[in-house]
Amino acid sequence: MATLAQRVRGGERRAAARLMRLLDDGVSAGFDALRELYPDTGRARIVGVTGSPGSGKSTLVDQLVRVWRDRGLTVGVVAIDPTSPFSGGAILGDRIRMRQHEADDGVFVRSLATRGNLGGLSRSTRDVVAVMDAMGMDRIVIETVGVGQDEVDIVGTAHTSLVVLVPGMGDDIQAIKAGILEIADIFVLNKADHEGVDRAEREIRAMIELGGDLDGWKPPIVRTIASSGEGVLNLADAVDDHLRWLDETGRFEDRVRRARVHHVRQALRDRFERRLDRAITEQTGIAGLIDAAASGEQDPYSVADAVLAELSVG
Amino acid sequence: MQEQARIRILVGKPGLDGHDRGAKVVARALRDAGFEIIYTGLHQTAESIVSAAIEEDVDAIGLSILSGAHMTYFPKIRKLLQERGADDIIVFGGGIIPEDDLQALEQEGIARLFTPGTTTEEIIAWVRDNVRPKSAA
Ligand SMILES: Nc1nc2c(ncn2[C@@H]2O[C@H](COP(=O)(O)OP(=O)(O)O)[C@@H](O)[C@H]2O)c(=O)[nH]1
Ligand SMILES: [Mg+2]
Question: What is the ipTM score, two decimals?
Fold first, then answer.
């Protein structure tokens, strides 16, 4: 019988979907399959899309997918929405905007919940992207909520990052200025049919000028009306320009390296956490140490050091 | 961390009738019970529901059907799931469904149908008892 990895390689959508599930749920069989598939990854170009809720990200992704499909490219979409901190549940509704691609085998859309991970991505995002990459998707888009310090994680994963802004968010821009220039390779000024679009563009431009020359790439501002598709061809061209610039300047390799380092760090964090959870339930010594902190008998720092020492011998 | 596994449920509304208030109420209640809901909205065809369910690797599909078209959509979805080797996905739903049809649909493999008046608590309890995350197998 074919292994899960072989079935994914053979183009079986159901197998790919199941593998993504195993990875999202942290099941070790998933990582075994991904290890087998890893040599097949590294071909896809990865585009991040971030912006406030309601700014039109999903609608924009839907339109970009259409342009890329017209250009003969296959596309994977990873759409991430936050998990409710109260219940641990989530409503993932981005697919609603992407229905024109439902019957198209050249498009694969997967919704993920953040599940308490900070930074706008789920822990599994990079793994799910890797599966889509191994499936042979030419482009992979990651849609993630929010703009600001919080969402820098997308930078560690995407080759090209789009920040979606809308007219009338003047104060927003002030508030997010600090982090935003580090994120945006391209600014998308969506809802260009709304009032205040000229002013918004001036504000974004002023911010870019203040930021100076960021290693030779000046982020363009592309106006779009995602709901009608206006400007989306320009946006797709801007993405191509940026990808080409990355290639020509050798920076593509840098970004790939950076993404791999982020991936290792994420994998390490996950493993450490799983190991810790297991140790707490299985190693009485560690449970005892944590009890000592719980009762106030010992301070949390000494306990943490002691647990770490236990883990490295155990 | 096996408790990372979450139950994933597609909630949608096939057919032509107008609003999705009921489906949204159920979606929110299920989220508040800790499930991950893939909400696909109004006017879904059976084909699009099944494609989405497969891509999202959901454990169950919950459909709200008010238009009286339950005898077409539910069996069609079951049939498509079977054809695509995905009939391990549990199908349940709600709507105004006459007694005779309820039995016929259960014969067709629809796991559970909730009729008007059912509380969201009852639906949640049923999901807890009957749906398991596939990754946990
Ligand atoms: N007027 C206008 N509405 C838009 C535009 N782009 C998206 N929308 C609408 O904005 C709402 C939110 O869009 P959505 O793509 O879900 O935003 P997201 O939360 O950022 O993913 C939807 O009702 C869209 O139809 C646009 O360019 N102009
Ligand atoms: Mg969205």
Answer: 0.93
